[in-house]
Predict the structure.
Amino acid sequence: MIIAEKKAIPIERELSKYCIDIPSLGISFQSDGNTNLLRSMMMSRHSGIAIGCRGGGCGICRIRVLKGEFASQPMSRQRISLHEEAAGVVLACRITPLSAMVVEPMPLDPAKPSPYHKAIG
Ligand code: FES
């Protein structure tokens, strides 16, 4: 089931560089406003968010958006529930930053945190 509609990125918007912060890991990287958040992280050679299929299928790149705007491609309800979506949880490989953002990696299974996940203190 599809949970998010893809938002059109305005054609007249010039490509910008947005700072993406992951404060609990002390990581920041840039996104060009035209590349999904996970790929932006990979291109900047950072590793704070777990990388899997890169296509919305595995759900391992789950993050919580704490601040910022983004365009979203469709995400499976099997990976992101309505409750999670309402809490700002998305797949990093399915969103494109449209502003500076602050995000937090989320474990796929809370009982088995990702090696990148650190508890927020
Ligand atoms: S990397 Fe698999 S859903 Fe994002």
In short: The longest strand covers residues 62-67. The chain has one domain: 18-102.
